[in-house]
Structure formats: C-alpha cells, structure tokens
Amino acid sequence: KDNWLVTLTKRLYTPLLRDHTELQLDLIAHALACGKKRVATLLTQECSWEGVNIDGDNANESHHKISHYASDAITGDGPRQMKAIDSFYAARFAYLVQKLKTLGILGNTICLWVTEIRESHDQGEFVWIAAGGKDLGVKTGRFQNYAYYGPHNDPRTDTRNKTTSDLFVSIQKALGVNSNTFGDAKWCHGGLPEYFSG
User: Fold this and answer.
1) CA pair distance 44, 78, nearest whole angstrom
2) What three-state secondary structure class fits 97?
3) Which of 44, 58, 101, 110 is a plausible cystine mate for 106, CB 3.0–4.6 Å?
4) Which stretch of DSSP H or E encloses residue 91?
C-alpha cells in the first residue's frame, strides 16, 4: 500500500529538498559576501509538518513523529530514521560552512544550526552547533557540555542553567554589539565565555 509513497519520498522529495536548501544557502552566502545582507535565517521546514521523512522505510512515520521518539523504536526503525534525518541536515550545514570558506568570509561570519525544540517538546538540554567567527575571536573547534539543573522540562527554574539568550549575547558581542542581554534580561547571565571571552 505504501510502497509508492516510500519511493516518492526517497527518490523525489529528498533530492528536491536537498537542492532547494542548497540553492537558498548559496543565495545567503553570496548576499553576505557582497555585503547586501548582514543577517540571514533559513527555516528548512516547519517542525509540525507531518509529510517529511528523509530516509524512512515507513512513509507514515514523519520527521515530526520520529522526533518525538528519537530514542525509541517506531515500527522498529525510529532511531535509524532520526540519524538519517540528522545526517541529511548536517550535510547541508557543512555545505554552508564550505561555501562561506570558499568565499573567504567564514572567519568573519557566525553560523548557528539550531532547533526550537528537543525530543517530546522538552525545552532543555539542546544541542546546537556553531561554526565560523574565528577572526572575530570566537573559540572554535570545541565541544562544550553545560550542566543541566532542575526539572526535566523546565530549565527556567534554576538560574545556574545556561540559556539560548546566553549564546546570543556572546554572538552579538563577537559581532560588535556590546550588551549583556539578548531578549528577556532575566534569562541572561552575560554570555558564554567558553565561546567568546570578549
């Protein structure tokens, strides 16, 4: 019943999404390189869109559904599918980084690969990946693991937790905006010195 849909997903949608994403990344990179833009954001797909599964054997299991259960098997294949999806987007991020490097602007550009949510709508213990910014004083080539304090799904209850705002404080400082807050000041602790000490 689902064989035609699986074939469509794998043979048509994945290459189309790849090509479309890389075209947008090309436009972003060239706009930054020629000075037409200073900030760019690319949302590849809505997280709630049910129809996307990069490499699934069961087309009824979408990227959204898989992300809810990335640690548990879904029809026996959830963890493998989540790895395939993450690998797909990691390759697009690497494509952008290489493009910026080729254009000679990676050292003065900060790229951030983010998600708005973690497994099962949790809002703590994110994994975000940053690249570039070496010429701006960003400390590159490292993995930083911040301790997580507090209840499973409410990082706001413990002020020792590092926040998204802390990361953006450091990014804006690296880019010349000397402010210790980004967004709501109560979630800011002055930045992340392990990322940018300036």
Assistant:
1) 21
2) helix
3) 101
4) helix 78-102
